[in-house]
Structures are given as structure tokens and as C-alpha cells.
Amino acid sequence: MAYSGKVIDHYENPRNVGSLDKEAPNVGTGLVGAPACGDVMKLQIQVNDSGVIEDAKFKTFGCGSAIASSSLATEWIKGMTLEQAMSVRNTQIVQELNLPPVKIHCSVLAEDAIKSAIADYRRKQRGAQAQAGQA
Amino acid sequence: MAIKLPIYMDNHATTPVDPRVLDAMLPYFREEFGNAASRSHVFGWNAERAVEQAREQVAAVIGASGREIVWTSGATESDNLAIKGAADFYRDRGNHIITAVTEHKAVLDTCKRLEKSGFEVTYLPVERDGRVSPQAVADALTDKTIVVSIMLANNEVGTINPVAEIGQVVKARGAMFHIDAVQGVGKIPFDVATSHADLVSLSAHKMYGPKGVGALYVRRKPRVRITPIIDGGGHERGMRSGTLNVPGIVGFGKAAEISAAEMAEEGKRLLALRERLRLGIEARVPDTVLNGSLEHRLPGSLNLSFAYVEGEALMMALKDVAVSSGSACTSASLEPSYVLRAMGVPVEMAHTSIRFGLGRFNTEEEVDYVIDLVAQKVKKLREMSPLWEMAQSGVDVNGIQWAGQH
Q1: Which of A115, B286, B325, B397 has the smallest CB count inside 10 Å?
Q2: Which tens digit of pLDDT belongs to each residue from B114-145?
Q3: Confidence (pTM)
Q4: Of A17, A38, A64, the CB nearest to B336
């Protein structure tokens, strides 16, 4: 099984590796997978007041395909609105990276990571609104 | 001396054919192409003579006689023949087989198949260091045990089993003792007398010989019998029909002869290289764990887990270096290494394991290059790892309730 050129590219020239401030109110953090499964992805989004993802960062414990899937995910969602990011599908990732069947689950985890980050952000926003309402 | 890339450090998967072995084989593809069973002309006689010489060469490396060697297509076939053949022949004495969970699939799957035809199999666990204990074998033996199969050295972690003590225990109860000696023969001293072996599987391509040829040692004193699994012209005293792979066998013989002659020196050299690699990596890379016994281990074998970095990603990063991993991502079944799991290595560490198999053609320069590369790439991958990040900030990664865990 040779790695696809695109997968190798994402590993050699990773885009958006890093961390955003978890505590910041406009940052959503998604953490999916489990070390026991050999796949853990942390994906973070920084959202501006217009609901647009202005920055995204990731860290992944997983194989080359997992790293590439999460790296690609952060590349795509930068500049998207939350609604647009919610509609990113794992099948698009599979196609873009030429993932073989045995690696499809890596793309599924990347899609989950995006949704998890968005859910975290929205939870924070609801919490903040509730606080503002009580003040 | 310039290093040639890619570097091959996966000698447990296969070994390059030694140039001296290839030279010995070539005439048997060219002018000496006779069938060793052709009794009536010089082409056959020459092939037969070469095969018989190879038989003695292979027998010598395990302290046996040529008449106790049966040629096969490889160790997988030898394992099948030994276990199925003995189980069937001695069926009237009992139906119990003992093996270990860390055996090669050729042994495990053969045992699974025998379970379907009424045999009972005990799969012994191993100690944390990966070895099978003679006491565990003794405790599992019953009056119905007819075959015990335990490997000499493990292909994944390189640990060496105490086969002599195990053999003693097995023979005291009168069962047949089979040893898959593929990874150990030609690398460490082994002989059929001290090990009390009745049946031994051997493979050419693990000792710098060609692929597609192996052997099964079948003891003659006292006489061990097996039912053949291949029927045909009755070759190999009826035990394994089929025209002999003459060039392969000649190569196997030459490879065995070289291994026997060079084993002591080579063992010393490989041990030193292996320790250089191990200590070099451990000095530069924190949170590295050795899998398997350090003391009872093949000289060229190293299996390390690099915490917080997944094995396949590391292999991709170590491009131009051929190694293998116990990670689930590298197996077709998406299961992590069953050998590491049997040794009690936690699943997440099994995913981070890399197996290095040093061999005859590896050099000190290659080892130094690899130490450097491993240190660099593990560092880079840890910078990309959320688990490393958590561990650095004092979070107990193993204590977390992971959403994705099933």
C-alpha cells in the first residue's frame, strides 16, 4: 500500500498544526477518537462575530491518512460559516485524498472532529447568552 | 562511506539473498535443470546430488542428519505438515494440542482448523517479557496431549523461548514436540538433541536464502511419524510429494552452511549494532518503551513503543527506512499486534510500536542515520500529537474517559 501523494504532502507540509486558546470564548474545541483505537483528533475553530471560522488548528495521533484527513479539514473550514462547515462530508475527504477503503474511517473521524468543535463553540455561546440574560 | 537509501531494517519479514547463495543457485536454473527424481540420466543424478548435499547442510545447522530433513515450500507448509501430520497420525493416543498465543499465524490458524475436526487446543498465555514458561506447559499437559508447538524465537519481538526446558517437560509426558524455529536458526545456537524436538520448521528466506523453500525436521530416533498433507508421487519418503525446487533447495543449503559458519561472529556484531540503535534512540527520545525481554532476545531484534506517536505515521515519516509496526493501522484486520497484546502491552502502546530487524547487511552508518531520523521524526510527530500535548501539561492521558472508546 503506497501512500497517496496528497497524504504524504499533508504530513510533510502540515497546514494548521497547533493549538488555539481553549478558554477563549470564540474558540470551539473538538476532541474525538481514543488512544486505544489508535486515532485521536483535536480540532479547534476560532469564530468571528459573523459566524465565520477565521482560524482552525489541529493535532492528531494517528496514521498518515488520519493526519491528512484532519489537516485537510482545517484547510477547508477556514473561511466557512458554521453552517457550511457542518455540511463537510467524509466522502469529500476520501475523494480528495484518494483514501483506500481500509482508511475511510479516518475521514469519518475528521468529519466528527469538525462537528465536535462546532458543538463545543455553540455550547459556549449558549452558556454566554444565558449568563448575559441573567446579568 | 555513503549510505545507500532506502535502508532495509525489516529482516524478520524477509532477508536479502546472500550473493554467495545466488551464485550457488544459478547453475540449477541454467545447465543443471534436471528433476532430482529423474533416476535414469545425468541431469537427474546431478540434481539429486545437489539436493542431498543441501540436505546435509541444512541438517548440520540444527544438529540433525540429512535423512531427517523433508523439503517443503516454506515454513508455513512445514508448520501445517508438522501439526496436522502429527495430530492425525497420533490421533488414537489423544486429541489435545498445546500451543501459545504468540505463535505465528501458520501455527495458530492450523490449530484453529484442527479444532473444527474434534481436536482440543490450549493456547497458553505468555509472561510480560513475551516468553512461554515451562511450568505453564507442564500444567497444561494431560494424558490426551499429543502435540505441543512452541516457537524458538518470536518474529515480532525477537524473544527466545526456553525450548530445552519445555522439551524436557513435553517428552516426560510422551507428547510430540514441534518447534517453529524459523526466526532463530542460523542466528542463535539450536540443536534438536538439547531441545528434545521431534519436529522443527525451517525457512530459507529468513536466513539470506530464497523465498519459496523450507524444511521440516522429522526425528528418526526415536521414530516420529506424520500423515502427509500433500499426496502425489511419494517424494521425501512419502512425507511430501511434489517435484523438488532444486535451485531453491541448493540456495537453502548454501544459506544454512554460511549461517552455521558465520553465526558466532555475526551474532556478536548484530548484538552490538542492535544495542547501539537501542541506546542511541533511548538517549535522544524520551518516553520510549522496549517490548519484550532484553536478555532473551535475538541479537538483531528491537521492538520499541514511542508513546503518543502512532506507528504507521512514524513509518511514513521514516521514509527510506524499511521497518514494521504493531499498530492496528498497518494490519489488514485493523487489529493491533496480538503478540504485543498477549504480553500485556496496553493497546495504545501497541499502536505506537516499531519493529527494527537488523541483519547481515546493515552497517553502523545506517544505524547512526536511523537513530538521528527517528529522533527527529518522533519529535515532529509529537508536536502534532494531542496526546503529547496533554501529557506535557500534566494530564493523565490514560485516565481520560474517551468519547470514541468502545
Answers
A1: B286
A2: 999 999 999 999 999 999 999 999 999 999 99
A3: 0.93
A4: A38
User: 3-class DSSP state for residue A64?
Assistant: helix
Q: Where are the domains of chain A?
A: 5-127
Catalytic residues of A: 37, 106
The C-alpha cell 474434534 sits at B118
Interface touch A8/B317, C-beta < 8 Å: no
Taking each helix axis as running N to C, give the angle between helix A5-12 and helix A64-77, from 0 to 180 degrees, rounded to the nearest 10: 80
Residue B326 sits at the chain A interface (C-beta within 8 Å): no
What is the CATH class of A5-127? alpha beta
* Burial group, residue B115, by CB count within 10 angstroms (0-12, 13-18, 19+): exposed
Query: For the domain B7-11+263-377, what is the CATH superfamily, name and number?
Result: Aspartate Aminotransferase, domain 1 (3.90.1150.10)
Contacts of A8 in chain B (CB under 8 A): 316
Which residues make Cβ contacts (< 8 Å) with residue B154, sequence separation at least 6? Answer: B102, B130, B161, B183, B292, B339
User: Which fold does the domain B19-259 belong to in CATH?
Assistant: Aspartate Aminotransferase; domain 2 (3.40.640)
Name every chain A residue with its beta carbon within 8 A of the beta carbon of B386: 31, 40-42, 59-61
Give the cell for residue B56: 546435509
Using a CB–CB cutoff of 8 Å, tell me whether A62 touches chain B: yes
Contact A73, A110 (CB under 8 A): yes
Which residues in chain A are contacts of B309 at CB distance < 8 A? 61
End-to-end distance of chain B based on CA atoms, in angstroms?
A: 51
Inter-residue contact B219 to B197 (CB < 8 Å): yes
- 8 Å CB contact between B182 and B298: no
List chain B residues with CB under 8 Å of A63: 310-313, 316, 327, 329-330
Give per-residue pLDDT as tens, A10-33: 888 888 999 999 999 999 999 999
The answer to whether B386 faces chain A, any CB pair under 8 Å, is yes
**B145 to each of A135, B97, B99, B252, how far by Cα in Å?**
79, 6, 11, 33
Q: A109 and chain B: CB distance < 8 Å anywhere? A: yes
* Among candidate residues B1, B99, B22, B88, the one with its CA nearest the CA of residue B363: B1
pLDDT band of residue A78 (cuts 50, 70, 90) is very high
SS3 content of chain A, % helix, strand, coil (to 5): 55, 20, 25
Residues of CATH 3.40.640.10 domain(s) within chain B? 19-259
Mark yes or no for CB contact B334/A40 under 8 Å. Answer: no
B334: nearest CB among A36, A61, A102: A102
User: Residue B61: enclosing H or E segment and its boundaries?
Assistant: helix B42-61
All cell numbers assigned to B313: 505515521
List pLDDT tens digits, range B312-334.
999 999 989 999 998 777 777 77
SS3 A84: helix
| C-beta atoms of B383 and A17 within 8 A | yes
What is d(CA B348, CA B332) in angstroms, rounded to the nearest whole number?
A: 18
**ipTM of the assembly?**
0.92
